[in-house]
Amino acid sequence: MRFSKLLLNSINRLINFIVITSLVIAGLYASYALWDNSLIYAAADNVQEDMLKLKPEVEDDSPSFEDLLAINPDVKGWIILDNTNIDHPILQGETNLSYINTDVYGDFSLAGSIFLDSRSNEDFKDNYSLLYGHHMDNSKMFGDLDLYKDGKFFRENDTGKLILPNRIYNLKILACLVVPSSEESIFVPGIWQDGIDDLIQFAKENPLHINDKNINEAIKSTNKSLKILALTTCSSEFTDARTVILTEMVPHNH
Asked: Within a domain: residue 61?
């Protein structure tokens, strides 16, 4: 009887030790994860702060990218969506993995960069161009694309700018979509280089939100070639969901 009691006490002490040890390890891991996450966001903040000091002037019809190109010749432009924190240089690598975890300085960064699809024309001369950025909390990188899922925000905020070394485009937001990462209409940019009528139709048939006014104005503008810029990031609706914002590229001062 005494032996059984001693054995039971020993087992209870062992169980308590295992539980306490597990809680301590879990606490240490949680603390590490928070610390590591804070470093990722701080690094993204630092890079964006540095880049904003070199942001090309929108008022200049030939914006200077000299300082940005001196840092990295892969810089192709600058993207702005009004009333969001999306205000970043655009890079383009040899593949779509080049800048997924690399910042503008060429350093490893889990936040990565905003980058142009490697299959897209680097001068944005295609009918359809595609930008990627990580989905991050606290309005980092392309995290603010989530704002457009709110109908009120979408209706009240439909402008932005694409700044290139030799010209500027005003952006008019056409639609917000949530699609799988396998959706060829969005993620195979080459299929739209002969015309994008079917892409507009796809947007009209599959929107989370759509700006009918901007869509109709784009369709009616027969005196110019319609150019679309898509911005995309990860989403949480389903396993491989992606949020997509489709915009029309309108030449500045047009």
From this structure: no
